[in-house]
Amino acid sequence: MSGGIGSRLWPLSREDNPKQFHDLAGNGSMLMSTVRRGLDRTAGASSVYLIGSERHAGRVQEQLSALDLKGGQAIFEPVGRNTAAAVALAAQVTLEQRGDGLCLVMPSDHVIETTAQFWQTVEEGVPAAEIGQVVVFGIRPTAPETGFGYIEVGEGSDGAVRAVRRFVEKPDEATARTYLDAGNFFWNAGIFLFRASVMHEAFQKHRPSIWEGVERALHGRCEEDGAIFLPESLYETLENDSIDYAVMERFDRISLVEAGFRWNDLGSWSALLDVAATDDRGNVVSGDVLAIDCDHCYLRSHGRLVSAVGLKDTAVIATSDAIFVAPVAKSQNVKNVVSELERSGRLEARFTPSPDKVIEAGAHRQRAWQWLFGEALPLWCEKGVDRIHGGFHESLTFAGEPTGADRRMRTMARQTYAFCVASDESWDGPARDLIDHGLSFMKNGRTDRGGWSAVLSPKGEVIDPTEDFYDTAFVLFALAHAHRCGHPDALELGNETFHFLENHLEDTSLRGFLEAPGGKRVRRSNPHMHMLEALLAWHQATGDRTYLRQASRIVDLFRSAFFDTESWTLGEYFDDDWRPAEGEDGQWTEPGHHFEWAWLLIGFADASGQNDLREIARRLYATGTAYGLNRWTGLAYNAVSRRGLPLDRNSRAWPQTEIIKAAIALDHAGGPDMRPEVEERVARLFRWHLDPAPNGMWIDLVGEKGAVATQDVPASIFYHLISALMLYLGSNARSGP
């Protein structure tokens, strides 16, 4: 079983990188150590199955790819439902694929020494399991440990197998001392041996609903890359309960075998003192650590020098963004730190920075400058401009030829914005002419009441006259930047468009805007985000705080409807009363929009003084990175569910630009040093989207395993690229690297 979020070993282990993926005892990752132990059964070969979180599927499969599971496979749960569901799942897969065989269930994040002694202990329990007992394995306690569950056995049992009297929850210290003195209490190792049909019998007697729910989910499974994936809609309905509570405390045929192996569940930093190599003063030292006159300390560093003098019985763990210090005896209370970080919205609760070392700030500055000013702007001011009919081409082939696609108003506005940015940076190309060129073509789509048509033909004829809110937001965004560049018509066009917005798109309930005039369809947060972006641009261009007051209404809607304070996720689709849409749409979230909102909220906080928005921005970033990144490529998925499961496993270019902007904004907003994260994200943008494309172009869509999944180059993405890379280059970007 490979679940959990690893909060007890924070700051090294976090929700996006739990402890089973770490090498904590010097034997490789705990997950791989457990799988290899399972494959090394001394009494004969056994198949190994792994039950894990779908959120970590890519990472698990990557590690398992080098191993022969001897007929076993990975099984991925879409949501965590504790150990009862996992054990029921193990029993059902065994019955289905192996008949009524013996099943050994064990956690993937325990340290066990040695493999031979482990299997010797397990084999002692086999005869009891064969005749219908559920066998558990107990560790003879060596201290009044309060972090473990206990098992009481009866007196007078014969041989290695002893009858279990009861399971006891984690006790206080005084109670734990009485257990230690009694001599017939054992720590519960969380390892179970049983015949599959016996576990079926136990569930049917004591918790049939869990067994039947797992059965339905298993029946609805799909298989991909040799692994089983269970349907979220069925699995999420299961009861969330442990196997101890659901079955073990009630079943009447349970026996215990005392473990003949060394065991540690690494439930705290103090536990690592028992399994890792120590120096001659009892210290565990890992990483770049200088320890002088220290005794019985756990000192670990990732990415920075830690120096300690005169410490005794102390744990110090340093990562690139956090340091935890506590007496060894109280290190298990790190869970209180994690709870406080969660409460206050700190990134460090869920998010693991990409590198373990500091990367030089601006490491990719020269490449970014060359791509923008030496490749992209020259290409798009030539190949991307329609000199015959006006406007900009909607897309190009990789050979630099226009595809002839119809022209969306949003793309014309975005390209106009891009040349406004180039003008601001004193680019030596024809930026001002191109701004006028873009606006002139866009005017072909003006409607009689001051709106803007959604789609034009390459010749400028209206194809779709819908006055779309999303397009209107981008028109206003482009006009703000054109006004800032001194375009003579931009201010008047902007005022007329705001008048149209107020009269035809504003919701009469004063809760946001309609998707289109008179529209009563599914409503989206995304167009409102871009309207916020436009209003901030107008405030920056004019200094008029009227735009901030309008922006504050969108921020209020974000607080009340778009953002879920429990899951830290951002909804995309809503009904007309701003309740999450039914079905998958209501669960749909986009990591790219988490990052984009984070960037914009910090900008609004800077302008308005609503400083609590910085905390919310950190939460958005933390959730986007914890749940939304593809572990194969490191790129943001296109979409995930509110529970963090991939819904669209491909990666477009634009979310990768928005994570750069958000990381830069968060770095300037206080909190952890985000500069290494910025450099990592810029590197991935070039690695997957820019460098594989012809000069000045981009790969818009990358598949889950990194394959190119697009045939042309959409011009609409240039807006994202130029805004992110200009921000990365900083002020006076044109001055060069």
Q: Strand portion, in percent?
A: 15-25%
Shape: elongated
Kindly report how far apart the N and C termini lie: 50 Å
* CATH-level-4 superfamily name of one domain: Spore Coat Polysaccharide Biosynthesis Protein SpsA, Chain A
- Share in helix: 40-55%
- Highest CATH level, the class of one domain: Alpha Beta
**Average pLDDT:** 89
Radius of gyration: 30 Å
Oligomer: single chain
Biggest β-sheet strands, sense, barrel = 5 strands, mixed, barrel
CATH architecture of one domain: Alpha-Beta Complex
Point out poorly predicted stretches: none
Describe the overall structure.
By secondary structure, this protein is of the alpha+beta class. The protein is built from 24 helices and 32 strands. It has a five-stranded mixed barrel with strand order 5-8-6-7-11. The protein has a four-stranded mixed sheet with strand order 1-2-10-9, sandwiched between helices. Helix 13 (409-424) packs parallel to helix 15, helix 17 runs parallel beside helix 20 (591-608) and helix 20 packs antiparallel against helix 21 (612-628). It is elongated. It comes from Notoacmeibacter ruber. Residues 287-341 form the MannoseP isomerase/GMP-like beta-helix domain.
